[in-house]
Design brief:
Elements: H1 2-23, H2 34-109, H3 113-182, H4 187-211, H5 215-252
């Protein structure tokens, strides 16, 4: 799960680092003549548009890869969920079959109307308790899954917004630099202003990512809640069946093994 988020984080950081590198080309040494310096300045200004476009293309390509990875992750999680549900159902079917066999044995042992009625009551109680437990477990599992999906969706949205924010900030920085160049601002000033803007954008993104890196804690909390619900359902089932078995034994007599 975390791999895909780290992938997009790396993608947008690559975008920031790429444009930072492009913007941080140092000014030529003062030993160069004015013609050379002017040529260098002109090259810097005329290359801004191409650099901005190249950076955006890299970002778009990496973002597409991340979205594809997210789709693969969703498919994988859905497949695992379906497989687990099938295993649960198979286990329940097996338990139901064995329970039916046990009930048939009890019915065969009942020799009086009271014993027959006690067996019927016991069977009904056990079936209802089993259904109640299963419903509680299914609800806990479904609630957990939906909460995990919501957490993933929220984090993806945050990350996408943060990445888009970085991309927009980079675009604005380049647009401003181009405007400054066109306005006759000294190239050294344009370069330093651009570099500072890109550095600030990168820092803002990094800080936002740090504050949004708690999905594992969220899922751990959801697991605890789900497990607590399942354990409570298990305890209730065991207690109900225990009481039903005691009543059944009383109906058959204290000396009868049930």
């Amino acid at each position: 799960m975390g791999r895909n988020y780290r992938f997009l984080h790396a993608a947008v950081m690559l975008l920031a680092l790429g444009v930072l590198t492009a913007a941080s080309v140092p000014a030529r040494a003062t030993a160069l003549d004015n013609t050379t310096r002017d040529s260098s300045a002109s090259a810097f200004c005329t290359s801004l548009s191409n650099r901005a476009n190249a950076a955006q293309k890299r970002f778009n390509k990496l973002q597409t890869k991340v979205k594809s990875a997210w789709e693969s992750q969703d498919t994988r999680l859905n497949t695992l969920a379906s497989k687990f549900d099938e295993q649960i159902q198979a286990a329940r079917d097996k338990v139901d079959d064995q329970r039916a066999i046990n009930f048939a044995k009890l019915e065969d042992r009942a020799s009086t109307d009271d014993e027959t009625a006690a067996v019927a009551t016991y069977e009904t109680t056990v079936r209802e308790a089993a259904n109640t437990r299963r419903s509680a477990v299914d609800a806990a599992r479904n609630t957990f899954r939906q909460a995990v999906k919501d957490a993933i969706k929220a984090r993806r949205l945050n990350l996408s917004n943060q990445a888009t924010g970085l991309s927009t900030a980079v675009s604005v920085a380049y647009t401003t630099a181009q405007s400054n160049c066109d306005g006759g601002v000294a190239v050294a000033t344009v370069r330093s202003t651009l570099l500072e803007s890109l550095q600030n954008s990168r820092q803002t993104f990094t800080e936002l990512r740090k504050s949004d890196d708690n999905i594992q804690d969220q899922i751990a909390s959801l697991v605890k809640t789900r497990n607590a619900t399942v354990k409570a359902a298990d305890r209730a089932f065991v207690e109900t069946v225990k009481d039903a078995a005691t009543a059944l034994k009383d109906a058959f007599g204290s000396n009868t093994e049930i």
